[in-house]
Amino acid sequence: MNASTHTKSLISRFSEKRPIRAGSFIITLYGDAILPRNGDVWMGDIIAFCNEVGISESLVRTAVSRLVSSNRITGSKIGRKSYYKLSDRSRTEFHHAASIIYSSPKLENDLWTCVLNLSTVNREDLKRKMERIGFGDPIHGLFMKPGDCQNALYYVFGDSLKDYAGVTFTANLDMITDQLDDLSHLTKGWNLDDLTEQYQSFIDQFSTIHTCLPFGDSLSDLEQLILRQILVHEYRRIIFKDPRLPAYLLPNDWIGYKAYDLFADLYRALIQKSENYINHYFENAQDTLSPNEPVMNLRMNMLKPIQQVTA
User: Fold this and answer.
1) Do 119 and 54 belong to one domain?
2) Are 311 and 57 in contact (CB under 8 A)?
3) Deepest in the core among 28, 194, 218, 272, taking most CB within 10 A?
4) Which of 164-168, 201-205, 299-303 has the lowest mean pLDDT?
5) What is the torsional sign of CA 176, 184, 102, 234?
6) How far, in Å, CA of 201 to CA of 199, rounded?
7) CATH code assigned at 36
8) Which pLDDT belongs to residue 181?
9) Are residues 295 and 198 in the same domain?
């Protein structure tokens, strides 16, 4: 099969997924394609694009209404047309998210963010929310994740973390790791087997298309934008659960590195023609969406293969 056949098959499988989470896909579209343009988008373009992946107009309108109610996006009306853009908070949140999605996961850092849970109230709810952003609990009641994760905690909890009697602090673990012969018990706070399965599913889903590179003219601008959005959407669902543990805590040949290289290669291959489609066919209140070159340049500079990051 050629690239076009593989792409049509992938779009078909994506469209058949149930339940279809329209709001989540729209967030992917805004974060990846609209955020670098600093603008609003006509509702008709959102509806038309989502229809390409099997999301109906009624689902889009319901999802957009909910996103407005939760202050993720804001709307305005000019004549009979409605336009929507990211809220100020969402813009800040998505810039932070971009630094995770498009950057290499192999970044060694001995600084960890820790959350000490001092109450048994709502402990399971806290655990679910912490796992969603990559925190593990190698010690009962202590959640940990590499790096400075204060922003991620704020986006999930706002000021409500105190309701869980959570005490947040950062710690440097270099002295601990130097003194321990066996570090494997530190990884027990994360379900790396489940994460491995998710990464493997991602690789299985996109590797056949990857083998068809370069695409040349076999895919239209629209097909490349659809493929790009599905790529980002599926990768985004996994990457925020990944704690990005230091290499010394991970299995040899960690599959997360392979998944990232696949993601980065495909994204770079899709960017030119998919951007052409947005430039010509997505409408805002003024006319067409203009790309923010510094933002896109920063994103593309982050998309480096693992071997270039570690060289």
Assistant:
1) no
2) no
3) 28
4) 164-168
5) negative
6) 5
7) 1.10.10.10
8) 56
9) yes
First to last CA, the chain: 36
Domain of 259? 1-101+191-311
Please report whether residue 34 resides in a domain.
yes
Beta bridge partners of 82: 77
Q: What is the SS3 assignment for 147?
A: coil
Q: Which of 152, 257, 209 is nearest to 14 (CA)?
A: 209
DSSP, collapsed to helix, strand or coil, labels residue 160 as helix
Token pair recorded at residue 226 = 């659809």
Backbone angles phi, psi at 78, to 5 degrees: -125, 110
- For residue 269, which phi and psi values (nearest 5 degrees)? -70, -30
Q: What's the gap between Cα 179 and its chain centre?
A: 35
Residue 150 shares a structural domain with residue 215: no
Q: Are residues 257 and 200 in the same domain?
A: yes
> For residue range 222-274, what is the model confidence (pLDDT) as tens digits?
999 999 999 999 999 999 999 998 888 888 889 999 999 999 999 999 999 99
Token pair 């003194």 is found at 179
8 A C-beta contact, residue 87 and residue 72: yes
Q: How far apart are CA 226 and CA 50, in angstroms?
A: 9
What is the spatial distance between Cα 273 and Cα 154, in angstroms, rounded to a whole number? 36
Picking from 279, 275, 299, the residue whose alpha carbon sits closest to that of residue 289 is 279
Domain check: are 132 and 280 in the same one?
no
DSSP state of 30: I
Enter the tokens of residue 189. 């706070």
Give the number of C-alpha atoms closer than 13 A to the C-alpha of residue 86, restricted to the C-beta side: 22
Tokens read off for 12: 């078909």
Question: Which residue stretches of 78-172 are H helix?
Answer: 88-101, 123-132, 150-157
Q: Which two tokens stand for residue 250?
A: 């991970």
**Element of type H or E holding 287:** none
Q: Do 203 and 285 lie in a common domain?
A: yes
Task: Kindly tell me if the per-residue pLDDT of 79 is higher than 70.
Answer: yes
